[in-house]
TrEMBL record, chain A:
Residues 149-447 form the NADH:quinone oxidoreductase/Mrp antiporter transmembrane domain. GO terms for biological process: ATP synthesis coupled electron transport. The keyword Isomerase does not apply. It comes from Fulvimarina endophytica. This is Na+/H+ antiporter subunit D.
UniProtKB/TrEMBL annotation, chain B:
GO terms for cellular component: plasma membrane. The lineage of its organism: Bacteria, Pseudomonadati, Pseudomonadota, Alphaproteobacteria, Hyphomicrobiales. Gene3D superfamilies: 1.10.287.3510. Belongs to the CPA3 antiporters (TC 2.A.63) subunit C family. It holds the Pfam family Oxidored_q2. Keywords: Cell membrane, Membrane, Transmembrane, Transmembrane helix. This is Na+/H+ antiporter subunit C.
TrEMBL record, chain C:
This is Na(+)/H(+) antiporter subunit B. It comes from Fulvimarina endophytica. Belongs to the CPA3 antiporters (TC 2.A.63) subunit B family. The keyword Transmembrane applies. Keywords: Cell membrane, Membrane, Transmembrane, Transmembrane helix. Residues 5-127 form the Na+/H+ antiporter MnhB subunit-related protein domain. It is found in: Cell membrane. It comes from the Bacteria.
Length: 542, 125, 139
């Protein structure tokens, strides 16, 4: 075998350019997650070291994510071909503005939850691998946001699922096993649908690289089969995102594990489904998405309605939050349901709506995580998360109650916090797209969430810790109440720091929304016109 | 050949969905296994059934001499098998634990996380 | 399982299967085989040993906890990807090294270490699941 033969073959199949240090950035979040995760797995006997190692690891992850966001913001979409194989043969890691935004938000809530868990997860559960599973799940989530290959996206979905399965059964209490069974089966079936669709996609296009599929789909003549394919993708992503009518697994399971696990799940897992739906449906198959927009609009409206009504019906703080997550998913889907104007115009309703939807997704990641963490603190302080038994938080912890009030304002979409602007954008976009009923539904669901939040705040925070405390006389009752609230001790700081971090974002993104709006507008432009994405992968080659 | 395999896939899918719609976890488990096999088979067919020569290159060459079958679907199926296998192992342990702890494998009776009679949330102080 | 024949044969069977799994792992370099299938063979070896003589002897024989073995494998697989970055190429780029050891040219590569990592991950996770099920089956 002649060596020049081999080098010729190599030139055809592998990248030739030299790499700068910054070119390796796309792989770094995964590297950090798996190096830290595996080291913590090996140190399973030294649970005292877990938080000490994990929190700096998560901080490093967030720093890397911010570096990627900065790099993408200043220099545009970046691509790394794994193993040096040229596209479309090798697996591409491609980060555009949308991916970078989701990635950074994920890193942010991961750090917050990591700090919170240092105080709230006991050593036995750490030994069973809370932090390794956390890293594995964050690795899966980050991989899904980074990858530019659709089969690889499926693999990251599964990595994320394995991590989340580990987290949800941690502790194995009865209701956890019950919730985990439903969660695991339905999510597995959801990702299997994704795999079916991907198999047929490969049969149609003969390629799995998303940029390659996007340009081949745009040039395709006979697009009949694509609609079936996109519908199948929509089913699987709707299942992952818990959109109506595939949402029943979420309220059955999210309130069963530890509060910090619920917080991670609520923030991240459903949003990965949303991200994949935007990426696949809007970027790769825009005409088919436009065909389905009426269906998506109905799904979005019903998801918002079921979320709002479900939240009103719950008497447990955490189960109420489950439905708030669902309502948020419906709101994000509104952005995906807007009709698209002909090519060349980039200021149509879809551009405004998608920008609002991505903004809302980022907001929802952060605010839902914060609310579940807050529910954890509230349950720790009052000894219960049932609205029948909570109370007295405003009087005993005004700082904490104030933070929660901010979060409730944000989740209901009230100004001046981060939930307001995206809803404004979505309402404007639906009005200009001539869908006033959808706009009304966005507002109505916000109204329902406002009532639900007001109820939690009135009962759990304003009301003095009431007759729920079982005591013979008033003095005794006061003593018991006082004991409960003084018990917080050293755990207080570790649980308040993450809440402060997340609430700070909610306030900043609400009062100074311009910087984030610029980023989401740029992310939307990148999704609506994928030429930048395609150029980044193929670098102008045919 | 394609037709026969497509038919086999259709049968596998129907069995899998029938089993998944059952109330009993053990049947759902079997459904998951069959579903993953159905998916693998459909991916394999989607890679086109060409020649049966395995995609192996003799050690003294750098390109195959004869036409070989498409290796990519095989790689995809292999990945999917590995994932499906590990998930099945996990689900098996989980279902067994749930069966032991909850004393039922009927999903209608698994109401620990969502109790049946909960009553209304408090309507006022 | 209380069978004299199985209890007597299991250690030999386990040793043979463990050896065979290493053979399959190394053979996977150019021929069918590899880390995943090798790992499955090794973990079924441990599972057989567990069925024959109980879970505790298997845990003792493995020295490290199966989960730690999986962690080490994951670590090795990730680190082997860094070889590509070290030679100025992309992550996971295959780096080859042909040392001569006792007159034979060895073909070592970062891919081999990746495969060993996969082997350890599979051994660790599948063995821990199998041992978990065997422990449960007893009580």
């Amino acid at each position: 075998m002649a060596t020049e033969d081999l080098s010729l073959l190599k030139a055809e199949a592998m990248t030739q350019s030299t790499l700068a240090a910054v070119d390796h950035l796309p792989v770094m979040p995964l590297l950090i997650c798996f190096v830290f995760g595996s080291v913590l797995l090996m140190l399973r006997r030294r649970v005292d070291l877990h938080p000490v190692l994990a929190i700096p690891g998560l901080a490093l992850l967030l720093a890397t994510d911010i570096a990627i966001l900065w790099q993408v913001w200043t220099n545009g979409t970046m691509t790394l071909m794994l193993g040096g194989w040229l596209p479309p043969f090798g697996i591409a890691f491609t980060i555009d503005m949308m991916g970078a935004l989701f990635l950074t938000a994920a890193g942010f809530v991961a750090l917050a939850c990591g700090i919170y868990a240092a105080a709230s997860v006991d050593p036995v559960e750490r030994r069973f691998g809370f932090y390794p599973f956390l890293f594995m799940m964050i690795g899966g989530v980050s991989g899904a946001f980074i990858t530019g290959d659709i089969f690889n996206l499926y693999v990251w979905f599964e990595v994320m699922l394995i991590g989340s399965f580990g987290l949800i059964v941690l502790g194995s209490r009865h209701e956890q096993l019950d919730g985990a069974t439903k969660y695991c089966f339905l999510n597995l079936v959801g990702t299997t649908f994704f795999l079916i669709a991907t198999g047929y996609l490969y049969g149609l296009f003969g390629t799995l690289n998303m940029a390659d599929i996007a340009r081949k789909a745009a040039a395709m003549e006979d697009t009949g089969p694509l609609l079936t394919l996109v519908s199948l993708y929509f089913v699987s992503f709707a299942m992952k995102a818990a959109a109506f009518p595939l949402n029943s697994w979420l309220p059955a399971s999210y309130h069963t594990p530890r509060f910090v696990t619920s917080a991670l799940f609520a923030g991240l897992l459903t949003k990965v489904g949303i991200y994949a739906a935007i990426r696949v449906m809007l970027m790769i198959f825009p005409p088919e998405r436009a065909e389905l927009s009426v269906v998506i609009a109905w799904v979005a409206a019903l998801t918002m309605l079921i979320g709002g009504l479900g939240a009103l019906a719950q008497s447990d703080f955490r189960r109420l939050l489950n439905y708030m997550v669902i309502a948020g998913i419906g709101t994000i889907l509104v952005g995906l349901a807007l009709p698209q104007l002909p090519a060349g115009t980039d200021t149509g309703p879809i551009a405004i709506g998608m920008s609002g939807a991505i903004y809302y997704a980022i907001h929802s990641i952060i605010v839902m995580t914060a609310l579940y963490l807050a529910a954890g603190v509230a349950a720790h302080l009052t000894g219960s998360s049932s609205l029948h038994e909570m109370g007295g938080l405003w009087r005993h912890n005004p700082l904490f109650a104030g933070l929660v009030l901010v979060l409730f304002f944000a989740v209901s979409g009230l100004p001046p916090f981060s939930g307001f602007w995206p809803k404004l954008f979505l309402v404007r976009a639906t009005m200009s797209a001539d869908m006033p009923w959808l706009a009304a539904m966005v507002l109505f669901s916000g109204f329902l969430l406002t009532i639900a939040s007001a109820r939690v705040f009135a009962l759990g925070f304003w009301r003095s810790l009431p007759a729920a405390v079982d005591a013979p006389n008033d003095d005794e009752r006061a003593r018991i109440v006082g004991e409960r609230f003084s018990a917080a001790g050293p755990e207080k700081a570790a649980s308040l720091i993450p809440l402060l971090m997340l609430t700070a974002f909610v306030v900043i993104a609400g009062v100074w929304p311009e910087w984030l709006l610029q980023m989401t507008a740029s992310a939307t432009a990148g999704v609506l016109d994928p030429s930048g994405y395609i150029d980044s992968v193929f670098g102008g080659r045919p | 050949m394609e037709l026969a395999l497509t038919f086999a896939t259709a049968v596998l899918y129907s069995i899998a969905f029938y089993l998944l719609m059952s109330k009993h976890i053990i049947r759902m488990l079997l459904g998951v296994v069959i579903l993953s096999n159905a998916v693998n088979l459909s991916i394999f067919i989607n890679g086109r059934l060409t020649t049966i020569a395995p995609p192996l290159i003799p050690s003294d060459l750098s390109v195959p001499v004869d036409p070989i079958s498409n290796p990519l679907p095989q790689a995809l199926v292999l990945t999917a098998i590995v994932i499906a296998f590990s998930f099945f192992a996990f689900l098996l342990v989980l279902s067994y634990r749930a069966y032991q702890d909850l004393n039922t494998d009927d999903t209608d009776e698994m109401r620990v996380a969502e109790p049946k009679e909960e009553g209304l949330p408090p309507l006022g102080y | 399982m209380n069978s004299l024949i199985l209890r007597f044969a299991a250690p030999y069977l386990t040793a043979l299967m463990a050896l065979f799994s290493v053979f399959v792992l190394l053979r996977g370099h150019n021929e069918p085989g590899g880390g995943f299938i090798g790992g499955l063979i090794a973990s079924s070896a441990f599972a057989i040993y567990g069925i024959a003589s109980g879970v505790a002897p298997v845990r003792r024989a493995m020295v490290f906890h199966p989960v730690s073995i999986a962690g080490a494998g994951l670590f090795l697989a990730v680190i082997s990807g860094l070889g590509g970055i070290a030679v100025g190429e992309e992550f996971l780029y295959g780096v080859w090294w042909f040392p001569t050891f006792m007159g034979t040219e060895l073909h070592l590569s970062s891919i081999l270490f990746f495969d060993i990592g996969v082997y350890l991950v599979v051994v660790g996770t599948i063995t821990s699941i199998a041992l978990g099920l065997e422990e449960k089956g007893r009580n």
